[in-house]
Amino acid sequence: MAQSISEIAAALGARAEGALQLTVRGAAEPAMAGPDDLALAMSPKYAAGLAQGRARAALLWEGADWRALGLEAAIFVQRPRLAMAGLSRAFDPGPQIAPGIHPSAVIAPDAEIGEGAAIGPFVVIGSGVRLGAGARIAAHVSIGQGTVIGPEALILQGARIGARLRIGARFICHPGAVIGADGFSFVTPEKSGVEQIRQTLGAREVIAQQKWLRIHSLGSVEIGDDVEVGANATIDRGTVRATTIGTGTKIDNLVQVGHNVAVGRDCLLCGQVGIAGSARIGDRVVLGGQCGVSDNIFVGDDVIAGGGTKIFTNAPAGRVLLGAPALKMETHVEAWKNIRRLGRLFAQVAELRETVSKLGNKTGKDDTD
Questions:
Q1: From CA 172, how far away is CA 80, in angstroms rounded?
Q2: Are strands 73-77 and 15-18 parallel, antiparallel or unpaired?
Q3: 140 is a catalytic site residue
Q4: Phi and psi at residue 324, in whole multiples of 5°?
Q5: Which listed site, 102, 342, 364, 366, has its alpha carbon 20 to 30 Å from 231?
């Protein structure tokens, strides 16, 4: 859909100059932009690409000389990534899900479907489900019995939403995500080798055969408002109490949230993060890709953990972590600097040993003289 420069600037709360009624139909990198595209050149380092493309208008950094860049119009932004959030929202048409209920959908007679919902083909909605107004449910989604989902939800292809869950407003769930599967919880009749090792940190009393007995998940999953769950992410239901995800939290693809975990508000869990059972994550926590959090520990508010960090013990609020095991970022960086110096240190020690040895030999000869 075509939009004018003035409409886009208003949506971004940004200043614009030039031919404000000029219309564009999409956004593109400067060198690839055509005459109907808005070129994204929000930093001087992208300015050269404008000459390679054919854009008539661009999103530029404050202070840019748009006329000298050969443009007819420009929108000026101070925070490029924030501008991208608004711009991408303006141009995103969203999934094409026809209004109403597709004939192939299977919906329990007592399910409550909110006004204006769009439900795609082969969707299965169980008994007692309550689906909020304006929900959009893509093909092959299943929603288990008794689950309540707030208004304006967007649940994409093949997602599996379990039974007896509570999910807030404006929920976004990407393809293949599974929410509300049973937790991975098992026990042995006798004390297992794992239990022994946790107590002794390595020593085992006896190595014996053992069989695992399943602990069923009787709890639920409770998700706040404005939560987004990525493709093929999984959130397990609690054993007795609910696994909880706070309002505003964003979960990337392939993230695993274990049973009984409590994740706070406005957290960011990046790809392949794994959080083990009964861990508690505070508010505004950022876990980089492939971070791991051990079971039954607490990660405080505003913790930031770099990619690949393994958190084995409680992390205090505001701490910046890196490494495996997790250390303060500055400690980790200094440690690796020292590791890189080890080769030189070994060479220096060898040289000193040789020098000391020669001095000792020389002193011994002098004594005999």
A1: 24
A2: antiparallel
A3: no
A4: -135, 110
A5: 102
